[in-house]
Structures are given as structure tokens and as C-alpha cells.
């Protein structure tokens, strides 16, 4: 799941003494690693933030806070392969911190203004709206692991760690989530 | 693998590529059909969920974070770990303590001092949060509490570092909300509460065994500043009061 470019950057960083590879050190290397993180993950972070907050504005704020914290703590990220889970965890904490204090106004479920909808056929727009409505109707305990699996691409073990659940619970919730979604979407199928 | 276990595993992850699962799929055409239908469902999900795209300006904004252009106030603070910056954080902690002390004062039940001290101690975990937030973030919280309420841009405010800014029920029962801020002080974290309620008659000092602080009435409400015992509370209070727009 990690951008190969990210690994290349790290290889360059560790190539001191190799005259064929530029050595990226000091703050420059940190900035480059950060830029790679942003380029690779900002869309996923925004999407997940959107589903956590149901608001594009709040999602944008959450993404900014997530990457601000990531930038400040980037030196603590020792394993590049863990970068995505690390970012998602920062985002979840940031969202929880906001949620403890106030609930941001959520977008109306009937007002999903999907990007590029203008380029879609009516049945494609309807399909997307059906999927969004079905996801919205899922209970959070089922929706959350499914979002991490579909948007984040995380394994059951990774989701279990992020949600502080055991793996069996995660798999059971994923089973129920897809079961419910399937029923919901099939019940809305025309004819 | 029995049918029930297969059903659960297929729904939990239809893309499972373990040998055990793939063998189970190959044993039965009905299982193959189920897995295929679940993969189609996942395609629909993925298509629907990824239809949410980040706004075009977001990537540029995020890339500017290292340059400090996202949070210019925070950048200025980071570049200058000043007295004010550290003291502002500690001030937030102090405000909470003041509330608790005031609560304990005899004959002043439900006084603002009591309320803020109670709130301070109920949110002591704020003092452990050392992740800076920008002044623009703080002012967003301020304006969400009351339109027009904000800290002004000034050299003094540029030099403070804020770690917490939350819109809180300072007194839920009486419907009093305020903005609870924690900033770095010289001695420790400083708690600041900006409460747009009826200004009290005059400045009140509050303290307990750990904290000390002041509640200062201003034109638009009350400003609470609480810190550790040796903190320059009055100095912070004066500076903050001069830099709030109500």
C-alpha cells in the first residue's frame, strides 16, 4: 500500500557514500518524506475524514490537522510501511478530540454533491447516491471497519489495532456490514 | 471449511487470497458465485466511496505546512520559543485550576470562580496535550462560540504557542459556554477560558494548592487565566485581555 516512490526516497536517504545517489539529509529529507506522504495519502485521508465527519469542510480541517501533526511528528515514523496506518490513526484521534467537545454540523444526506457528478449519466449518479445512503444507514460499528478496509485497504489485523478490537470482532463486523449493505442495495434495485 | 465459516469469511473479505480460502472457493461453484457477487459489491462500494475527492486546493495547502503558510501564527511561534508562547499554554491549565479553587470557596456556590475551577479540573487532560494548534484554528473555535469573537493579530499573540482550543460547556446547567485554551507558559501549561457572559464586577484572584489565576471582566465577557503557582498570570491576563475582540 506504500507508494514505491516513498521507498525510493528512503533508499536515497540511506545511500550516504554512494556518489550515484543524491543524499537527502537534514530538514530537506524530512520535507521530501512529508511531501511524499501528502501526495500519496491526502485523498484517502480526506475521504475517510469525510465519512467520519459527514462534512466536506470538517473533513478538510481534519486533513489539515492530521498532516500538521504528521509533519511535526514525522521523525517518529520509523517504518515507512506503517505510514498510512499512522496517518489514519492520527486522523481518528483528531476526530475523536473534536467529537468530545462538539459535533460539527453534518452535510445533509440528501445533499451529497459528488464531485464530477455533472459528467455522469443519471443512472450513475443514482448508483452513487444509493451507495452513499446505504453506507450512511450502516451502524457506525459496522461502517467504521468497512471504511478502513475499502478506503484504507487495511487488513483485519491492522483494523483491529486501529479500532482497539480483536481480529475476530473485526471480521464479524465486516461480515455483518457487507451483509447489511448487500440487503440494502438489493432492496433498492429497480424492478 | 464449513459453509457458515466460509460465508462469514467471504463477507469479511471477499479478496482473501489465503490458500485455505481459495481452496474453499474452488470446491463449490455456489461459493465462487458468492465471492464474485461480493467482489462486485466491493466495486460498487469503492466506486461510490472514492467519488468523494479532496478539494483541489487541499494538496497545495497541505504541502505548505512545512513552510508554515498553513498556520503562519504557529510557524512564528515555532521559530521563536518565546516566553509568551510557553506561558500561553500554561495559562490554559491555570484557568482550570482557578475554577476548582473558586468552587471550594465558602459562600460562593455557583460563582464564576467555582464554575471555572470545576471545569479546569474536569479537563485536566488538556494540560497533557502538547500538540500545537494554529491561531487561525483558535479563532475558528472562538467565532463558532460567538460571532466576531477572536484574538487579534499582534506581536504578543504571534509569540504564544497554543496546544488546546475547545468550545466547552463551562457551566452546562446554566448554559454557559466558553472557549477553553491551553498555552505554554514559563512554568507550565496555562489555561485560558474566554467566556462571553455577563462581566463580573471586578477582577477576582483565585488559587488552590496547585494553581493560581485571575478572572478579569472585559467589555464582552470574562477572561480567565490560570497557571502554576509561579506563573506570571497577571501579565498574561493583561496581554490577552488587550488582544481579544468580542
Q: What would you say about this model in short?
A:
The complex is a heterodimer of chains A (191) and B (246). Chain A contains eight helices and no strands. Chain A has 191 residues and is mainly α.
Protein described:
The complex is a heterodimer of chains A (191) and B (246). Helix content of chain A is 69%, strand content 0%. Chain A is globular and about 50 Å long. In chain A, α3 packs across α4. The longest helix of chain A is centred in the N-terminal third of the chain and has 28 residues, at 26-53. With 191 residues, chain A is mainly alpha-helical. Chain A folds into 2 domains: 1-108, RNA polymerase sigma factor, region 2, helix turn helix motif (Rna Polymerase Sigma Factor, Chain: A), CATH 1.10.1740.10; 118-191, Winged helix-like DNA-binding domain superfamily/Winged helix DNA-binding domain (Arc Repressor Mutant, subunit A, Orthogonal Bundle), CATH 1.10.10.10. A 6-stranded antiparallel sheet of chain B has the order 2-3-4-7-6-5, with helices on both faces. In chain B, strands 1-8 form a two-stranded antiparallel ribbon. Chain B is 46% helix and 20% strand. Chain B is elongated, with a radius of gyration of 26 Å. The interface between A and B is large, with 52 and 43 residues.
Taken together, the total number of domains of chain A comes to 2
Tally of separate helices of chain B: 10
DSSP strand content of chain B: 15-25%
Mean pLDDT of chain A: 75
Protein topology:
The complex is a heterodimer of chains A (191) and B (246).
Chain A: H1 4-13, H2 26-53, H3 56-73, H4 83-101, H5 122-137, H6 140-150, H7 156-163, H8 167-187
Chain B: H1 3-12, H2 19-26, H3 29-49, H4 56-63, H5 72-79, H6 83-104, H7 112-122, H8 135-145, E1 150-151, H9 155-158, E2 162-171, E3 176-184, E4 189-195, E5 204-207, E6 211-217, E7 222-228, H10 233-241, E8 244-245
Antiparallel strand pairs in B: 1-8, 2-3, 3-4, 4-7, 5-6, 6-7
Helix pairs in contact in B: 1-3, 6-7
Amino acid at each position: 500500500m506504500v507508494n514505491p516512490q516513498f521507498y525510493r526516497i528512503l533508499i536515497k536517504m540511506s545511500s550516504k557514500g554512494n556518489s550515484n545517489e543524491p543524499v537527502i539529509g537534514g530538514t530537506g529529507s524530512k520535507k521530501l518524506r512529508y511531501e511524499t506522504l501528502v501526495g500519496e495519502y491526502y485523498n484517502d485521508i480526506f475521504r475517510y475524514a469525510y465519512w467520519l465527519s459527514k462534512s466536506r469542510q470538517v473533513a478538510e480541517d481534519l486533513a489539515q490537522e492530521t498532516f500538521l501533526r504528521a509533519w511535526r511528528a514525522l521523525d517518529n515514523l520509523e517504518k515507512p510501511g506503517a505510514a498510512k496506518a499512522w496517518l489514519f490513526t492520527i486522523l481518528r484521534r483528531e476526530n475523536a478530540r473534536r467529537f468530545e467537545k462538539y459535533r460539527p454540523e453534518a452535510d445533509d444526506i440528501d445533499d451529497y454533491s459528488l464531485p464530477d457528478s455533472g459528467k455522469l449519466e443519471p443512472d450513475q449518479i443514482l448508483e452513487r447516491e444509493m451507495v452513499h445512503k446505504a453506507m450512511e444507514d450502516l451502524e457506525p460499528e459496522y461502517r467504521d471497519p468497512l471504511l478502513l478496509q475499502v478506503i484504507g485497504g487495511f487488513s483485519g489485523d491492522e483494523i483491529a489495532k486501529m479500532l482497539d478490537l480483536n481480529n475476530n470482532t473485526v471480521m464479524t463486523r465486516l461480515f455483518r456490514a457487507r451483509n447489511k449493505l448487500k440487503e440494502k442495495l438489493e432492496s433498492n434495485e429497480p424492478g | 471449511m464449513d459453509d457458515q465459516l466460509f460465508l462469514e469469511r467471504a463477507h469479511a473479505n471477499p479478496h482473501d487470497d489465503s490458500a485455505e480460502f481459495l481452496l474453499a472457493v474452488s470446491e463449490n461453484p455456489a461459493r465462487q458465485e458468492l465471492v464474485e457477487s461480493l467482489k462486485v459489491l466491493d466495486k460498487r462500494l469503492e466506486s461510490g466511496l472514492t467519488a468523494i475527492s479532496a478539494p483541489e486546493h487541499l494538496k497545495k495547502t497541505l504541502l505548505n505546512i512545512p513552510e508554515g503558510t498553513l498556520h503562519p501564527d504557529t510557524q512564528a511561534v515555532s521559530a521563536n520559543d518565546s516566553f509568551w508562547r510557553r506561558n500561553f499554554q500554561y495559562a490554559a491549565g491555570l484557568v482550570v485550576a482557578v475554577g476548582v479553587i473558586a468552587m471550594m470557596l465558602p459562600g460562593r456556590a455557583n460563582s464564576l470562580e467555582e464554575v471555572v475551577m470545576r471545569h479546569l479540573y474536569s479537563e485536566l487532560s488538556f494540560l497533557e496535550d502538547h500538540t500545537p494548534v494554529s491561531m487561525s484554528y483558535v479563532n475558528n473555535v472562538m467565532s463558532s462560540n460567538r460571532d466576531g469573537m477572536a484574538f487579534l493579530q499582534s506581536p504578543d499573540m504571534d509569540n504564544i504557542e497554543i496546544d488546546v482550543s475547545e468550545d466547552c460547556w463551562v457551566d452546562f446547567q446554566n448554559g454557559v459556554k466558553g472557549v477553553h485554551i491551553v498555552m505554554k507558559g514559563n512554568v507550565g501549561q496555562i489555561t485560558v477560558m474566554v467566556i462571553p457572559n455577563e462581566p463580573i464586577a471586578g477582577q477576582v484572584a483565585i488559587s488552590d494548592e496547585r494553581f493560581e489565576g485571575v478572572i478579569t471582566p472585559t467589555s464582552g465577557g470574562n477572561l480567565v487565566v490560570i497557571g502554576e503557582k509561579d506563573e506570571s498570570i497577571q501579565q498574561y491576563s493583561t496581554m490577552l485581555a488587550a488582544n481579544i475582540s468580542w
